[in-house]
Write a structure and sequence with these properties.
The protein is mainly alpha-helical. The protein has helices at 38-49, 99-105, 128-138, 145-148, 158-173, 175-180, 185-209, 221-230, 233-237, 248-251, 253-265, 267-271, 275-285, 322-330; strands at 2-4, 29-33, 56-60, 117-120. A 4-stranded mixed β-sheet has the order 1-4-2-3, with helices on both faces. The chain is globular, with a radius of gyration of 20 Å. The model is unreliable at 5-11 (pLDDT under 50). Bound molecules: glutathione. Glutathione (GSH) is lined by residues 6-8, 37, 39, 71, 74, 112-116, 128-129. Glutathione binds at residues 6-8, 37, 39, 71, 74, 112-116, 128-129. GO terms for molecular function: glutathione transferase activity.
């Protein structure tokens, strides 16, 4: 048995489904995630969207404690499914810590013990960045036509997706972490700007495409990538990661409408989102950022209601800080 795995760095295993080594089989693969983690969220979103919940089983770690700066001992499973709502025991092996799953795959494993981790009960591996690319089609041959046909990387939009992905990943998905984990004032000042430069740009792109998705009528992997970060933005990144030049709900009417639409209209988005796991993970597992581990109660509500269907009625917003505007201007239009 082996793990099909994980992180974007060199410390994991790599493989894709379907392939001769990893065929698309129901019941063969097991996904280890945390509901708090935006990278794991991408995989779980796809699992819901593509009707894979019966095909890929799942175990869910608790959102805290996290472990030390080296990741030791890392994420743990609750002792029972009642201990922390939404977290589960390790359904495959009954282990207490996620790192033990990594060592089952490789006793000499030297990398980090991160979620998501995809386990192949017979052999193998993958990574989460690639998971977003291949998981959406991985099981198409055994899925009913109505879900098999959901294509998040459609031919006619590939160039646009490929043009947006690098800066969305760097400035938004990873950007909030670069600002939030900055160790110095200078580092923070430098890293918070691109986050809002990119949000300003996305506000305009979505407005120009007319919604309800980033590129217009068709949901693509960009929506999943962006959702996993923006659903955490007002809730966590504004205060915990100090990304507070603006909020989605106050400063970005178009992005906010997109987010509301994703949450309220796309079941797979809503069903893969758990705000308690999200809030308690960041605020109770980063002792250096929040030493008292008090989780702020707001904002309330987690996501606003009332999706505006007439996108032309929306004001195009954005943060007007001069450095943000300058950064926005440097991002190439798709
Ligand atoms: N780059 C990896 C990282 C995923 C990741 O950073 N997961 C975090 C939680 S959001 C984690 O498990 N960190 C534990 C650690 O690195 O020790 C990926 O995209 O799969």
């Amino acid at each position: 048995m082996t793990a099909i795995h994980t992180p974007s760095t060199n410390d994991g295993w790599h493989g894709t489904i379907p392939s001769p080594q990893f065929p698309a089989e129901k019941g063969r693969y097991h996904l280890y995630i945390g509901l708090f983690c935006p990278f794991a969220h991408r995989a779980n979103f796809i699992r819901h969207l593509k009707g894979l919940t019966d095909i890929i089983s799942i175990s869910i770690v608790k959102p805290y404690p996290k472990g030390d700066e080296n990741g030791w001992p890392g994420w743990r499973f609750p002792a029972s499914d009642d201990e922390y709502p939404g977290a589960t025991v390790d359904h495959l092996f009954g282990e207490d810590y996620l790192h033990k799953i990594y060592f089952r795959a490789d006793p000499e494993y030297k990398g980090r013990y991160s979620v998501p981790l995809l386990w192949d009960k017979k052999a193998g591996v993958a990574e989460s960045a690639e998971l977003l690319r291949w998981l959406p089609t991985a099981f198409n041959e055994i899925l009913p036509q109505n879900v098999a046909s959901i294509d998040l990387y459609p031919e006619h939009l590939r160039d646009t997706i490929d043009a947006i992905t690098p800066w969305m990943q760097s400035h938004v998905n990873a950007g909030v972490y670069k600002a939030g984990f900055a160790a110095t004032q200078e580092d923070y000042d430098e890293n918070v700007i691109p986050v809002f430069g990119a949000l300003n740009k996305l506000e305009r792109i979505i407005a120009a495409n007319g919604g309800p998705f980033v590129l217009g009528e068709t949901m693509t992997e960009l929506d999943i990538r962006l959702y996993a970060t923006l659903i955490r933005f007002d809730t966590v990144y504004v205060q915990h990661f100090k990304c507070n030049l603006g909020t989605i709900r106050h400063d970005y009417p178009v992005l906010n409408n997109w987010l509301k639409g994703m949450f309220w209209d796309v079941e797979a988005a809503r069903n893969s989102t758990d705000f308690r796991h999200i809030k308690e993970n960041y605020t109770k597992s980063h002792g250096d950022i929040n030493p008292k581990a008090i989780t702020p109660m707001g904002p309330f509500p987690d996501v606003e209601e009332g999706v505006e269907r007439d996108w032309k009625k929306l004001r195009i917003g954005g943060v007007k800080h001069p450095a943000v505007l300058e950064y926005e201007g440097k991002i190439p239009s798709p």
